[in-house]
Fold this sequence. Notes:
The structure holds 2 protein chains of 2 kinds. Chain A is built from 9 helices and 3 strands; from the N terminus they run ααααααααβαββ. Chain A has helices at about 5-25, 45-50, 70-75, 90-95, 105-115, 140-150, 155-160, 180-185, 210; strands at about 190, 220, 225-230. Helices cover about 35% and strands about 5% of the residues of chain A. Chain A has a 3-stranded antiparallel sheet with strand order 1-3-2, with no helix packed on it.
Amino acid sequence: MHRYLRFPFMLASFLVAVACHAATEQTLTTEDDLGPQVQQPIEFPHYRHAGNRNPVDPTNSDPTKGGMEINCQYCHTYARRSLTAGIPPLQKCVGCHQNIPTVRDKPRIVELFKYWDAKKAIPWKKVHDLPDFVRFNHERHIKRFIEQQGRPVQEVCGYCHGQVKEMVTARRQKPITMGWCVSCHMKEHVVVAKGAIPEGGTPIGKQDYWYTFQKPAETRNAEGELTAKGPNDCWLCHK
Amino acid sequence: MSVTNLLNNWAAVRHFHPIDDKPHDPYKWAMAIDLDACIGCNACAVACYAENNLPVVGREKFQHGQAMHWMRIERYWNEDSREFPDQGAEFLPMMCQQCEAAPCETVCPVGATNHTQDGLNSQIYNRCIGSRYCSANCPYKVRYFNWYDYPTTDNVWPAEMNYQLNPDVTVRGKGVMEKCTFCVQRLRAAEVTAKGEGRIVREGEVQTACQQSCPTNAISFGNLVDPESRVYKQWKAQQVDLAKDEQEKDKREGGTDLRGYRIFEDLRPYPSVMYLERVRESAV
């Protein structure tokens, strides 16, 4: 190739590469970005356990329709008291299912009891896998939204995990990136003060004080309620 | 560090300490170390290694000054016409002083080290690019740089030893700066528990690893804005004020017999660690 053609050629290939990349690359900051479909050892039907009851069929005899409305925290019991939500031990599955003879011969349940008889844990795979330097605290969010503000459990879990109650095996619906987390923390939330410490609210109002060395002005929304941002301390998650 | 700070008159801002506006609410973590009780046993340093996943670098790298001891015991020899110089050994546990106006924070090009609301000087490993400017600007020389990828280096955590790593603390990779965190993983756990119960962390509820392991209780740690805490009482009794670069007691004619002091106070970093001077035989 002629020397004077080299640069335009390289420029053109670069632009083509960028265009292809932009066309194929999925953006991570969309509202409902799906994660990869993770293959689990047993296809656990979340919709059947946590999904809404079928009003026409209150006995839930048709497995394709209604759910049991089981609280997320019944199985993911560690969420309210530790950093991680955790997956239930096999004992918890069997604890119920040994008393449900009607589904005992279903292929998923047969598979479940194979693990139980072999005394082996089910090797579930992680769906919402954060990098090792991130320590998201489930407990704090559960305490704030469910216990202090009394919001419905499935709604609160759904803020980050999406509509798990409609899924079979869980799949990541939200980006779960730091920018996505911070987008909520940077909003002005109403401060729910109870007693000496602002409860229900991490919003303390002085969070960004040390970053600016200026006392932040008191912020109020249109209804005149005191508002503040969520914590922006890096050391809450990265340590 | 925001750009707004840099655009404003930075020097004027840094001249005063804004503690009068009560930014530390409800926590200000601080420490007091009684050098008279310190016997230089190094238990604190060992506890720190275990708690914070510090790599043991070995003799050769140690001699190159690449040791990663967040908590180190500095030795001084006060011979004082003794028969054996060893009798005059004095020890000073030195770790990050969690300065209120930290010199390291202002120079970080990427804002990887910040001040937290509860008065800690945070170090964010995944944000650090390894410029080492903070270490250069630290008057206490308590920041340590990962010159090697220690998790993959031989004999740092040989097989099965990796199971003893603390899961609450990041295992740092090559090229990031690290330093004492006042065991922030314990503080945050205690703060979250307390907040869930609608109270603040009580005195004695949280301990740092060094404090926990000290056989002579030389180290006390707690919330400096809590009048019930031991550390508050000690600072008060020694008339050491966090927000001053020269204490009132030192300005007095003829000095003072109070033992409390902070290292390099006059440099105005406003350190959060108070030391209690060793009582020397000559002074008794």
